[in-house]
């Protein structure tokens, strides 16, 4: 479940028809330049999503040429570099984005995700905190969740739990935070809170392999064999090929 929330990716399909050249950009207004860069960003990310790395890079580099001081040009190129494992180039792109937009919450958040994946946990948490503190930054719940996931990666479950709680305070519907917080509570021997949260989760979204696995783990630790059997039967019936069910039938206690 180690997934991340990032603000930069809105991937759609465009054709190259109507895209202006870099030379033409010299005669464009700032708004027109941003639109041209956005067209290249969207096209580049579409190619990246389709696995065409050459065309992805071409379009994302063109976006930077159009608007080098536009944060999405730099962060989109940074994301490309991450996907092709050119981390040094990715970091340079993030730093350029910060040089132009030092108080942009999206840039700070995404750079924090990058740093955490590199194992630079303290630096990452600093960037998440800076993102959260920015006025008019509306993805606070995502940054708290990313901070929590990063804390988990560093082995700090106490801090992770605090950040998951803050994430849910800002957005009670965050699925990852809900499930991860339930897992941490179960690990602590606190069964009442995750039982309630998982009941609400299943009522809203239906039974999912992960939520069922958590309930099996919870009720097993709580000594409720009949409930373990109940949830295991549901898991086997609805998701017989899931990793969670295979772990259960193989007597593997690991949920994740």
UniProtKB/TrEMBL annotation:
The UniProt record lists the keyword Cell membrane: no
SUPFAM superfamilies assigned to the protein according to its UniProt record, in alphabetical order: TPR-like
Protein name per UniProt: Type IV pilus biogenesis/stability protein PilW
Ranges: TPR repeats: 37-70
Keywords, sorted A to Z: TPR repeat
Keyword RNA-binding part of the UniProt annotation: no
Signal peptide coordinates: none
């Amino acid at each position: 479940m180690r997934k991340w929330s990032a603000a930069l990716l809105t991937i759609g399909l465009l054709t190259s028809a109507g895209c202006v050249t870099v030379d033409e950009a010299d005669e464009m207004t700032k708004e027109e330049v941003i639109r041209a860069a956005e067209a290249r960003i969207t096209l580049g990310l579409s190619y990246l999503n389709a696995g065409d790395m050459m065309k992805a890079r071409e379009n994302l580099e063109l976006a930077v040429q159009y608007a080098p001081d536009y944060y999405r040009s730099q962060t989109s190129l940074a994301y490309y570099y991450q996907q092709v494992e050119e981390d040094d180039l990715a970091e340079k792109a993030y730093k350029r984005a910060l040089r132009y937009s030092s108080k942009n919450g999206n840039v700070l958040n995404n750079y924090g995700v990058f740093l955490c994946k590199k194992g630079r946990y303290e630096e990452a948490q600093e960037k998440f905190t800076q993102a959260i503190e920015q006025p008019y930054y509306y993805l606070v719940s995502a940054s708290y969740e990313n901070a929590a996931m990063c804390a988990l990666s560093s082995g700090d479950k106490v801090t992770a739990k605090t950040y998951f709680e803050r994430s849910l305070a800002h957005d009670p519907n965050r699925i990852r935070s809900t499930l991860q917080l339930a897992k941490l509570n179960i690990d602590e021997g606190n069964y009442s809170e995750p039982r309630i949260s998982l009941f609400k989760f299943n009522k809203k979204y239906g039974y999912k392999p992960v939520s069922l696995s958590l309930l099996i783990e919870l009720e097993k630790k709580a000594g409720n064999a009949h409930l373990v059997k109940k949830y295991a039967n549901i898991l086997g019936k609805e998701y017989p090929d899931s990793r969670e069910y295979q772990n259960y039938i193989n007597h593997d206690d690991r949920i994740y």
